[in-house]
Amino acid sequence: MSGQWRAQFDAEVAFANGGGLSTEGFRLDIPGDTIDDADLAALFVRHLGLLMVSEVRITNKTVIEEPHKGGRAVRGARGGVHGRRLIELSHLVTDGMTTLPGWPAPKITEWLTREASRKHYAPGTEFHVARIDMIANTGTYLDTPAHRYADGADLSGFPLDRLADLPGLVVRLPADARAVDRLLLAPYDVAGKAVLLHTGWDAHFGTPGYGAPEAPHLTGDGAQALVDAGAALVGIDSINIDDMGPAAGGERPAHSLLLAAGIPIVEHLTGLDALPPEGFRFTAAPPRVAGMGTFPVRAFAVVG
Fold it and tell me: Average pLDDT of 244-270?
């Protein structure tokens, strides 16, 4: 359960200077699990930025437990939870796990066992050193421009201020939708922010269905909109930020546009349902490894 609440309702709006508008089945973030009609009307007017409203009539109201989608009405609401919290947004890396179907799994072994270390140290002193053999695209990982472009900045050359302590924003994909496009991104102010695309596809991680052709993605025009608006970083909780379906034909417009603009990408996020729509800080910083364009990260958010 999300611990966040939204109201669904019909509304009839009358304006003081004449005219009106009506909505059916409108959904709006609310700060708790109850709200009266007067407060809901005020939130509705604020959310849409309506001026000169004389009356709002609310009917057919229900309250639904559902992650907040964001907007001007309830900014950064956290379902009544207050104080500073750290939210884990990375998949666990384990020996033999699958990130991308058909790609090599990590192998985690011991390089120095505790037993073997004892002969090198004083009695009662022992150490353990593990070894991991993996491809860079394992678990939750970061793509830098060098992943796509031979002359792009790699892990060692990418600026830290584009990877850590960024103001965050969550864009939630509507149910049954597959693509994040320009229209879906239009309501959001993404300039200078880590834009995290919440598709819910992480529920399939580690299963054959995770790599299905219908996996959600960012479209080319959506990527261009993020570039034009000055996003600092873009993340997604799906198998790939690009469309991997057969109709895509191997094209990777989201990778190409974002990385050409110096905007890093974080793929295979998880837990985005625990985040508020905004009002948090995001970090996904890899080690400084020269000559590599991708690497796993410990992605997390600081809320409050």
Answer: 95
In this structure, the number of other CB atoms found within 10 A of the CB of residue 135 comes to 14
Please give the model's pTM, rounded to 2 decimal places. Answer: 0.80
Q: What is the DSSP letter of 42?
A: H
> Which residues contact residue 30 at a Cβ distance below 8 angstroms, ignoring those fewer than 6 apart?
5, 6, 7, 40, 43, 63, 73, 74, 77
How is residue 72 annotated by DSSP?
S
Distances (CA, A) of 264 to 15, 136, 257: 45, 15, 11
Instruction: Return the axis-axis angle of helices 253-260 and 220-229, rounded to nearest 10°.
Output: 10
Range of lowest pLDDT (44-58, 132-146, 189-203, 252-266) = 44-58
Partners of 165 in the beta sheet? none
- Using pLDDT thresholds of 50, 70 and 90, give the confidence band for residue 77: very low
Check pLDDT > 60 for residue 225.
Answer: yes
